[in-house]
Amino acid sequence: MGEDTRNTGIQASKNPEDPTETTEQVLVEEEQKFRAAPKLSKSPFHGLWALTNRDLRKWYTNPIQLFISLIQPIVWLGLFGKALNFASFITGSGASTAQMDMILKNFFGTTSYFSFLSCGMLAFIVLFTSAFSGMSVVFDRRFGFLNKALSTPVARGSIVMAKILQSVGRSLIQAAIVLVVAVALGMDASHFTPQGIAGAFLIIFLMAAGLSALFTVLALRSADWQTQMAIINLLNLPLLFASNALFPVKIMPTWLQDVVKVNPVSYAVDGIRQLLIGATGMNSLLLDFAVVIGFAVILSAVGIVLSWRFLSK
Questions:
Q1: 94, 101, 109, 245: least surrounded by Cβ within 10 Å?
Q2: 200 is a domain residue
Q3: Does residue 9 lie in a domain region?
Q4: Which domain holds residue 227?
């Protein structure tokens, strides 16, 4: 009797003589409700800003982290840059002011080593900021956020691009602060122009994108922060010292000069120096831009492609 009562209740508003028809109508109604639900976005940029802003928020809401990230390049500018006063070495040899300027310009492309180093410090801050974009992937994996992101409709490429963009944003802001500090400490600003500053920060943007993509790719399968730190230490110092960021290429041994020529950081620094302080470049400005653009595009594309294969729960 209980079963008869339930069947009667189900068929109350239907044809009591055809239970098959009742079942089909219920299924049709349920399917219509499902179709009426909002569709999920299939855009490759879906969730990109949300993921980028999440990482940026962790940075700009923690002023101590910003302060600490600026200490090292400022210390290098204030101590290393001022301590290596090459002009005093030349003056002590009895050279005149004109001869001293000619010697300095021949080695550094400018008459001020501090200005030479200040442009290198912009690359320095970008290099070390970009290195920790990969660490963000490692910690997201360790604390479970990456698994949650992979369970959403967000494209895997967007997860990688978010890490790159947040690192680029941080690099641009920190580079601007370092540039202001460098000018306050004595960097030559006589060659500054709006076009030159815009071009220099475009190079910084491209270099940050390429380096961030590189370190993010290296962290895609890593769950151990110690391994990632070892990779950062392994790559950062060679990229810095095997470039023209700290010293001119002319004083380096021949084998190291060849390494400098294949280091993308060298081309970025060379372009920044030409645009900001009017230094004599080791390459044409067009070649510097071509190299950093190619570096950024290729590494970003590799990061997106590898995310499809290696980024998993």
A1: 94
A2: yes
A3: no
A4: 50-84+113-310
Check pLDDT > 90 for residue 291: yes
Give the pLDDT confidence of 250-282 residue by residue, as tens digits: 889 999 999 999 999 999 999 999 999 988 888
Tokens of 86: 């090459």
Task: Report the pLDDT value the prediction gives residue 47, as an integer from 0 to 100.
Answer: 77
- Domain assignment of residue 120, yes or no: yes
Residues 285 and 203: beta-carbon distance below 8 Å: no
Please enumerate in sequence order all residues whose Cβ is within 8 A of that of 105, keeping only pairs 6 or more positions apart, or say none: 111, 280
Q: Summarize pLDDT for 213-249 with one digit per residue, the tens.
A: 999 888 887 777 788 888 888 888 889 999 999 888 8
3-class SS letters over the chain: CHHHHHHHHHCCCCCCCCHHHHHHHHHHHHHHHHHHCCCCCCCCCCCHHHHHHHHHHHHHCCHHHHHHHHHHHHHHHHHHHHHCCHHHHHHHCCCCHHHHHHHHHHHHCCCCHHHHHHHHHHHHHHHHHHHCHHHHHHHHHHCCHHHHHHCCCCCHHHHHHHHHHHHHHHHHHHHHHHHHHHHHHCCCCCCCCHHHHHHHHHHHHHHHHHHHHHHHHHCCCCCCHHHHHHHHHHHHHHHHHCCCCCCCHHHCCHHHHHHHHCCHHHHHHHHHHHHHCCCCCCCCHHHHHHHHHHHHHHHHHHHHHHHHHHCCC
Rg (CA), the chain: 29
Q: Is 3 exposed, middle or buried (0-12, 13-18, 19+ CB in 10 A)?
A: exposed
The answer to whether residue 105 sits within a structural domain is no
At 115, the amino acid letter reads S
Residue 194 to residue 5: CA distance in whole angstroms: 83
- Can you tell me the distance from the alpha carbon of 241 to that of 10, in angstroms, rounded to the nearest whole number? 79
CA 161 from centre of chain: 9
Residue keyed to tokens 């000619």: 102
